[in-house]
Amino acid sequence: LTSAQLKGLTETQLGALTTTDMAEFTETQLKGLTSTQLSQLGTDNLSALNSTQFGALSSQQIAGLTTEQIANLTATDIGEFSSTQIKGLTATQIENLTTENLSALNSTQASALTATQIKALTETQIDALTTTDIGELTSTQIGAFTATQLAGFDSTQFEALTPTQLAGLTSAQISGLSTETIAGLSTSVIGNLTATQVKGLTTEQIQNLESTQFTALSTTALASLAATQLAAVTTEALSALNSTQFQALSSTQIGSLTTTQIENLTATDIGEFTSTQLKGLTALQVQALTTENVSQLSSDQVAGLGAIQIKALTATQLENLTTTDMGEFSSTQIGLLTSAQLGALGSSNFNQLTSDQVAALTSTQMSGLTATQIENLTTTDIGEFAPTQIAGISTTAIQLLSTENILAMTATQANAFTQAQVAALSDEQVEAWIQALA
What gap in Å lies between CA 420 and CA 331, rounded to an integer? Predict the structure, then answer.
């Protein structure tokens, strides 16, 4: 029979062919069958074709096979398809491949699947993919999976992805993964995620990362985290970062940490902050620092505190500073303290201010000195006050100056007393003041 004669066979005639008849068709004769005729062959007759005969079918003929024919193909039949024929399968035909037949595709056949065909894979088919099957897919094919399809991957399947395949994942695909899948990912997989992919993690996914997983992220990936993502990190995971990882975070990222996260940082964690990062702390974050953590700041870190951070220090934090801590503040920083903050300093800390630090105090700050601070001033301390600072002492506090301290003043200092201050002095203080004027 010629090709032209074969094209004239009716559906009834084709249906009467036996498997033996099918085995006698040559490649040329099979090529002469239309896709419609091929679709009319019984599943047994189609399976009776040998590899040479199957190989003779064009991708157009293959595309004409019915879903029933596709569903009834054996693993052996599928193994006879060329990569070109595989590419010819429609999305509907792909959906009707049995999980066994899909798994039977060899690496050459699997790599021939197009993005459209990949997207046609059903949930059942994806569930049945073995680690070997997954290993046969290219990074481009991995990137073709929809977020919904990829969400069907369990952690074992995800672990089968090579670094090259992982690179094919989009941020949208990453965000579609279930929290269970995320929680099951190894540190190796987490460590291979790019900055772009990490940006795709949802806050819920980040909250489900174990400390070991979070610390597996590269410094580049950590630096890419958005404020909302970083705010979702557990306090345990945040504290688990090493100094290199901590310092990979920008000051803007540091400023996005919640007060709860800040409160739970250890002194070691705080010690890993750079001065630039500390400048990123908001007023509320500074106030959330424990007194221990404030006290543990190094001289370089203290030097990095700006006006926002200095003015945010609470009375409790200032009360717990040691004289060594105070010595690390610059005169400019001391000058930024409010009168209330200055009043919160212990008398020992106030007395230990250097002459440069004292010189930075404004008259407004001086008005905030407490009774205890005034009472504990030494003659040396008094000698460091400028006339304008003397004039800033409140009338209540001035009454607590010892006569010894008044006598230690220079005439210029004594002459700086305001009328209100003089009026508040006791008789003994007035006598001392007159002597100081002389």
Answer: 29
Tell me which residue of 256, 260, 302 sits closest to 282, measured CA to CA: 256
Residue 381 contacts residue 349 (beta carbons within 8 Å): no
Q: Which two tokens stand for residue 431?
A: 């006598």
Gap between the terminal Cα atoms of the chain: 137
Helix (H) or strand (E) holding 174, with range, is helix 171-175
Distance from C-alpha of 412 to C-alpha of 352, rounded to nearest angstrom: 24
Instruction: Extract long-range pairs of 404-412: CB within 8 Å, 24+ residues apart.
Output: 404/379, 405/377, 405/378, 405/379, 405/381, 406/432, 406/433, 406/436, 407/432, 407/435, 407/436, 408/379, 408/382, 408/383, 408/436, 409/382, 409/383, 409/436, 410/383, 410/436, 411/436, 411/437, 411/438, 412/387
SS3 content of the chain, % helix, strand, coil (to 5): 65, 0, 35
Count of Cβ atoms closer than 10 Å to residue 108 Cβ: 11
Closest CA to 359 of 323, 394, 384, 328: 384
Taking the C-alpha atoms of residue 278 and residue 286, their distance in angstroms, rounded to an integer, is 9
Span 68-81, mean pLDDT? 87
- To the question of pTM greater than 0.90 for the whole model, the response is no
214-250 per-residue burial string, b: 16 or more CB within 10 A, e: under 16: bbbbbbebbbbbeeebbbbbbbebbbbbeeebbbbbe
Q: Count the Cβ atoms, other than its own, within 10 Å of residue 281.
A: 24
* Model confidence at 197: pLDDT above 80: yes
Letter for the amino acid at 72?
N
User: How would you class 13 by CB atoms within 10 Å of its CB: exposed for 0-12, middle for 13-18, buried for 19 or more?
Assistant: exposed
Give the residue from 312, 328, 321, 324 showing the smallest Cα distance to 345: 321
**Three-state SS for 204?**
helix
Q: Which of 216, 260, 280, 221 has its CA nearest to residue 242?
A: 216
Give the total residue count for the chain: 438
Confidence of residue 432 (pLDDT cuts 50, 70, 90): very high
